[in-house]
Design brief:
114 residues; alpha+beta; 5-stranded mixed sheet; 5 strands
Length: 114
Amino acid sequence: MKLREQWFKIGIENPWISSADDPAFTRNSFVGCFSVEELEQNIGHGNWAIGTAFYYRDLRFINQVEGGDEWLTIRHGIAFESMTLEPSIEEGNFARLIRGLLTAPKTKCQTLTY
């Protein structure tokens, strides 16, 4: 539960995510995925409400745009990127992107050099 609290705090500090109201962004907004394929399928479904959140291992994505594809990206306890993921799904690069994010140390995430 400690991690979920940390994720929630990071999300609620974001002005777009904190404005989510249909549904509201809560500690229970995070949906776990058991594989990169499941994460890709969920995110690729599209048309997500602000505050929709998915995670795989220690990587989280929280949607920041109503019906859109702009995801606050969190890893190592920091929000380090705002990512549009649909192009990487359409181009077949999503799994490679996720593997890169999962192997990047905190310093690489902070400097956006993953």
